[in-house]
Amino acid sequence: MPTSPASSTDTISVAHCDAALAAAPADQKSVTSGQASTSAETAPWALQLSSSFTSIADQLAVASQVLSQVPASSPAHSTQPHNDSAQSASPTALAAFASRLDTIEQMQASLSAEINKIKAAALDQKGSEIQTERTTAASVEDLDKKITALQESLKLDQDRLYARLHNTTANVSKMSIIAPPCGEWEATVKFPGYEGRV
Fold first, then answer.
1. 143 bridge partner residues
2. Can you tell which superkingdom this protein's organism belongs to (predicted)?
3. What is the mean pLDDT of residues 55-60?
4. Which residues have C-beta within 8 Å of that of residue 108, sequence separation ≥ 6?
């Protein structure tokens, strides 16, 4: 069975939707595009991301407003009179609305790709920072060990100084030889009457 064209009520609703699509998104798109270009030139990526979210939110709000104005369901058959303008307005409005939705979906896909790139860059930067911190910590620990070893060596040399000075004059002063102190892990030092320690 042939179906009847849209009613006059549907024509008014569709024309109103077409006017809303033609006027409101154009103004908002020009404003948001200007904001996005300004942010891209003068602001960091965080402001660019915020501007993209704002633009998508504005377009989604306009699309939601248009959807709320479109009738939920239209009768398949209508007995009311119709004209050529009703037949031409409905396909035009639907095509414009479909184009607008495609644009929003493309912007969402582009924004998702940018977010993924930002996440990957942040993870790489964090990983490099962690690796740098580990390398720095290891270097600092090795340096501390070397400094501690040098301090112990200097202290041991100072402790041995008195014994060495005494032993240089032992033959003249007829005094017994003093064994100099040994390091904790040094080999046993052999001195007369001195067994030393490890």
1. none
2. Eukaryota
3. 80
4. 56
pLDDT of 53 reads 79
Per-residue confidence (pLDDT) for residue 186, from 0 to 100: 58
User: What would the mean pLDDT of 79-100 be, rounded to a whole number?
Assistant: 65
**CB-CB contact of 17 with 93 (8 Å):** yes
Q: Give dist(CA 64, CA 106) in Å, integer.
A: 17
Answer for the pair 51, 32: CB distance below 8 angstroms, yes or no: yes
Beta bridge partners of 191: 194
- Name all contacts of 72-81 with Cβ < 8 Å and 24+ positions apart: 74/6, 74/7, 74/10, 75/7, 76/3, 77/3, 77/4, 78/4, 78/5, 78/6, 78/7, 79/4, 80/7, 80/8, 80/9, 81/8
- What letter does residue 184 receive in the DSSP assignment? T
Return the higher-pLDDT residue of 15 and 190: 190
